[in-house]
Amino acid sequence: MSMVHCKHHRINYCINHGLLCSCEPELVKLVYRYSTKELDQFDRQLSELCRSRDIDTPQSSSSQVSRRRHLLSETSSYQSKNEETKEPIEQPPSLHAPYQPSLFKREVINNGRIKKKTLNFTPSSMPSVIVKEQSEMIDE
Question: What are the start and end residues of every segment in region (Disordered) (predicted)?
Answer without folding.
Answer: 53-101
